[in-house]
Amino acid sequence: MTKSALFWVEQEGQSKPQWQVVPDLVYGQVLKRYRRRRVVRVEYVMQWGVFAELKARLQALSLSGRLNTAFVERVNLTLRQSISLLVRRTWGTAQTPSSLIKLHLAWWQGYYHFVRPHQSLRIAYEASIPRQEGQLVRRYRSRTPAMAGGLANHRWTVRELLSCPLPVG
What we know:
This protein has helices at about 50-60, 70-80, 100-115, 145-150, 160-165; strands at about 5-10, 20, 25-35, 40-50, 120-130, 140-145. By secondary structure, it is α+β, with helices and mostly antiparallel strands. It folds into two domains: about 1-65, no CATH class; about 100-169, no CATH class. Strands 1-2 form a two-stranded antiparallel ribbon. The chain has a two-stranded antiparallel ribbon with strand order 3-4. Strand 5 and strand 6 (about 140-145) form a beta hairpin. The chain is extended.
């Protein structure tokens, strides 16, 4: 569970609490400049903190230490491919109320995290597990993001996912 970058602070003499940023927040941004639909310049801007701290934190996570948009762009593409209402050049979005899009997104989010196994999260078995004749030997245990994050101990079925109520709001 990650902590929020903002928290409430009640100060003396003020009737309402104020939002305050976590002191150790480091936040960098990648700005891409386009000309005729092509990237002509990439700028790295620190919104909070310093580059040296950001680089050190990224390297501590076994990353290169450079800001990039690859992860966000990959999630955006996965979303567009998974939810037909978000596919570009379609009439579907113009004919659908926004509440339906929110419900569709909530369904996809649950499916993506609890039902769908991700190949990059699989764990290799110490010894291959033999199977019936004609089947391949099992070398990996598949996992979902929820299993990797400790939120689930098994891969959910669609029935289990649909039996959980959606958050209201």
